[in-house]
Design brief:
Layout (H helix, E strand, L loop, with lengths): L30 H10 L14 E6 L2 E6 L2 H10 L4 E3 L1 H11 L8 H11 L5 H6 L1 H17 L4 E3 H18 L7 H15 L4 H4 L9 H29 L8 H7 L11 H32 L1 H14 L12 H13 L6 E5 L3 E3 L2 E3 L4 E4 L1 H4 L19 H4 L20 H18 E4 L9 E3 L3 E3 L4 E6 L2
Parallel strand pairs: 2-8
Antiparallel strand pairs: 1-2, 3-5, 4-12, 5-8, 6-7, 9-12, 10-11
Helix pairs in contact: 6-7, 6-17, 7-12, 8-10, 10-12, 12-14, 12-17, 13-14, 13-17, 14-17
Bound molecules: protoporphyrin IX containing FE.
Protoporphyrin IX containing FE (HEM) binds next to helix 12 and helix 17.
């Protein structure tokens, strides 16, 4: 069924920035070329037809793959018939070795119990309660940046640091005794080792066959898990001592109970989920912020609008409230459209099915790729242009719920969705109020590289000009 493009008034927007991205392919690739491209940068493997057709089914190297980019069919896949689809083995093989059986990689009854038990920890009330911690991390970053007037920042590093700072404050309330940068480095190394799609995974080689990249990440992963073990032990001792425990995600998980059975989480489940939150939450949000800074540096008019908003919204105590940041939040949402940190989601059909007119064989793979969906020719007006106005409240209703999926949809929708939109919006507001960041003229091209998430291939260095 054709879907009306989410169009907006273009008369008042003469300039539109269109970030440089790999051009869709026009010719199909052979096996080795595909494997090489998939390993180097999977988003370079998409074909032009993927951005134009609602559904494309193809015989891949690992069996049938169906790519769905039509909102009503995605609704069918993720909601109406979600029970017929599980996270597919490719995704599980890539994620599970690094993340244990936390929410992201658990399946079936184990996943359902965990999701029911953990969901209340991410309720609107709790997420709003985390705004103070996010504001504190944003204010700290803003001070650091403003002091470095006239120098260059490595945006990827800074955004990774601030998103870890937020997670540290909201998960452990400053419980990390070790050097937070060392922890950050260990996490980044663990994730980058599990990030690239290994050709062995594509061929379905059993997971006990070691992958070279993963061996490199193993010692970093152990260090990271040790840190989390230490934090859990210390917090349990605090709770047992009867001392008042801080209100944070670790405390919420340790005291959470399944509303149906009354059961709590085991220590192992708490640990797997803390590791999952850090892994799923830090690089995704850091990359979203990095791309937002890049996009703002390229569009003077949007940047001035955001500057005016944050200057007016900044409260005396040095904090922002999400409700005052309408344009800033629209910039975050448009950034997540153009550079979705999770570029594709995959599912395996448990039983044979039909998606629209396409037959889905049992066991075959179905993909929904926000990278493709968010730039789909049928769904968006000027899909490659940076137009935050699309997400202003007066235009938002024109966007189909299933055409915009940075956080997925249905029962397995990102549990950290409102957490990270709030976080990215508040942090961006603090940055924009404190500094103007410009791309130096001699910067190498800023283009996306798909690892586990989407990051700038040549990094992003920006020149700081203090606004305070
Ligand atoms: C911009 C930031 C983020 C993006 C773009 C993002 C994206 C996603 C997506 C697309 C999924 C669904 C995957 C699928 O259906 O296959 C997901 C799941 C998940 N995300 Fe996020 N995420 C972000 C931040 C966070 C944060 C901050 C946390 C935790 C604090 C988090 C925790 C999770 C968890 C636990 C799941 C698995 C949920 C389940 O299967 O029940 N994410 N995320």
């Amino acid at each position: 069924m054709p879907v009306a493009p989410a169009s907006i008034d273009t008369a008042s927007a003469p300039f539109r920035f269109r970030p440089k991205v790999p051009a869709p392919r026009t010719e199909p690739m052979g096996l080795f070329a595909f494997l090489r491209a998939a390993r180097a940068n999977p988003i370079t493997t998409w074909m032009r037809a993927h951005f134009e057709e609602p559904v494309i089914a193809a015989e891949g190297f690992a069996g049938r793959i169906t790519i769905v980019s039509e909102p009503s069919l995605i609704r069918y896949l993720f909601v109406e018939n979600a029970k017929n689809y599980r996270k597919d083995d490719l995704q599980r093989r890539i994620l599970a070795p690094g993340l244990g059986n936390g929410l992201l990689s658990a399946e079936g009854e184990e996943w359902r119990n965990q999701r029911r038990t953990i969901a209340p920890s991410f309720s609107a009330r709790h997420v709003t309660g985390f705004a103070d911690a996010m504001n504190a991390a944003g204010a700290r970053l803003a001070r650091r940046l403003a002091r470095r007037d006239g120098t260059m920042i490595d945006a990827v590093n800074e955004m990774t640091r601030v998103s870890l700072d937020v997670l540290e404050r909201t998960i452990f309330t400053h419980g990390l005794k070790r050097d937070p940068d060392a922890v950050g480095r260990a996490i980044t190394r663990t994730l980058s080792a599990i990030g690239p799609i290994d050709p062995l995974d594509v061929f379905g080689v059993p997971s006990f066959v070691p992958r070279i990249g993963r061996l490199r990440g193993r010692s970093a992963g152990r260090f990271f898990e040790e840190v989390v073990d230490e934090l859990i032990e210390r917090r349990k001792a605090l709770i047992a001592s009867g001392e008042p425990a801080p209100h944070d995600l670790l405390g919420l998980l340790l005291t959470a109970s399944d509303p149906e059975t009354g059961n709590g989480l085991t220590d192992l489940e708490v640990k797997a989920n803390i590791v999952t939150f850090i892994a799923a939450g830090h690089e995704t949000t850091a990359n979203a912020l990095t791309w937002a800074l890049y996009l703002l540096s390229q569009d003077a008019s949007v940047r001035e609008t955001v500057e005016a908003e944050v200057d007016g919204a900044h409260r005396a105590e040095g904090r922002f409230a999400l409700d005052d940041l309408i344009v800033t939040k629209a910039v975050v949402e448009e950034t997540l459209r153009l550079f979705p940190p999770v570029p594709f989601m995959s599912r395996a059909a448990i039983r044979e099915d039909r998606i629209g007119r396409i037959k889905i064989p049992q066991g075959s793979t179905v993909l929904v790729a926000p990278w493709v969906l968010h730039r789909h020719r049928r769904l968006w007006d000027d899909p490659d242009a940076f137009v935050p106005d699309r997400f202003l409240p007066e235009n938002r209703a024109r966007i189909d719920r299933f055409a915009y999926l940075p956080f997925g949809a249905g029962p397995r929708v990102c549990i950290g969705q409102s957490f990270s939109v709030q976080e990215a919006t508040l942090i961006l507001a603090h940055i924009v109020r404190a500094v103007r960041l410009d791309l130096p003229a001699d910067h190498p091209p800023v283009t996306p590289l798909h690892r586990l998430t989407l990051r700038p291939e040549n990094g992003l260095r920006l020149l700081i000009q203090s606004r305070l």
